[in-house]
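Bug: token stream looks shifted between consecutive jobs. Job 1:
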Amino acid sequence: MVGPGGDGTVINNGPAGTATNKGGSVTITYNNSQAIETGEEIACASPTSFRNNNLFIEFDLAGDFGITDAFEVSDAEIGIGPVISPAGFPLTLNVYSSNGGAFPGGTQTLQGTATVTITTADAETIISVPLSATIPAGDNIVYEAVLVDDGTDTNFTRFAANQQGPSGINFIQAADCGAATPTNFSTLGLTQVLIMNLVGEEVLGVEDNINNIASVYPNPAGDILNVKIPSNITVNEAKLYDILGKDTGLRLVNGTFDTSSLAKGIYMLNVKTSAGTLVDKIVKK
């Protein structure tokens, strides 16, 4: 395994886990820093060209990130080290759901894949690639990066890494470098962690109460009342009623009610959504 001064790659937001915002987009990572550290890059490669590389990381969604419902991935991020390439080369990113044991054990089911062309402009950056995948509730995520040897000496890269996460959470499969099957970095004497993140949203389950995840403000209200609902929840109907139960005729537009025409008093907000009905007492000042 060749790297200018080192090998390795990974990311950390657990096992202490920091990444949930129910109903909102989050980034899950195992790195305490997203800094690309020079000399920590890794790949199975010669000094001028790469070989076949499969790199892996497993995210324990429930145990490390508190994500207990299904999780919808929208983007995959990965750090790229030095790049030499006249025309660019493909990098494939795969996302699997995984259950039945810790990786490389258990059963992995491919849920989404994306391919991006890496060029010299990507050197020493973290790239973000749109990738759609749904991970069932209770499963872990295995995130894989695949680099295929093109048989030339014209394309070269290593993957960015740092020392700012828990070691031993990345795996590499690279037969040319003695890892015929997914092998833990620590087994190979590597302490780096790859910069591999996933971005997405937790899909709210039936047990999630819409009253706890929606925001209604200000209350008392002046001329505007904001109703913020997580983006993965569908709003079917939103109305404001007066104290006698009469519909005021106001409607929710882009997350707000224009309440400037309402008289001072007490009103009832009723918002029917795909996650239940939000009911709240509103005071117009």
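Job 2, same session, no restart:
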Amino acid sequence: MSTTTGVERKPLRADAQRNYDKIVETARAMFRERGADASLDEIAKRAGVGPGTLYRHFPTREALIDAVMRDWADRINADSDEAAASELPPREALSGWFSKFVENVGIYHGAAAKVMAAMDDPASPIYRKCQILVGANQKVLDSVRDKGALRDGVDAREVMRIVSGIATVVDQSGIGADDAEPMLAIVLDGILVDPSD
């Protein structure tokens, strides 16, 4: 089975695939309810499988988070394609892209902090999702750069660290994604060329 990460997963027996799918769907629901640190034993119990079954499929919490985030990565890529192809002025296109990211990563309480922590950790299963995110951001920034609106020296990875930091603040403080707009505006002011220059 090919995934967005480009990593192949061995086909599972039908019963094992059902268990895998039940665990992922249950984890997705529980991460929304309780955050990315939800009890793995409770996830197994709600999914109707034993803890051993969960750990055979997902030996670490990060491996389970990685599986839950597959559709998230697809959404990130679709959003970046839309932003990169946008006919909107660069600031509006970039603002929309950042806002959607904050909203998407906020679906799972605690996910923004885990994404930030894994950004430079190749041993983490979430690292691949971080690379997808950095690549998506690079695509959007390149489209802004092609329009002559991006300051020299702006690095996609560093911008994602800042925006992920804002997403973490939103997530941890309990404010709404809309409340991130003033913080994102500061980032935009810092990376975009001032039209009056």
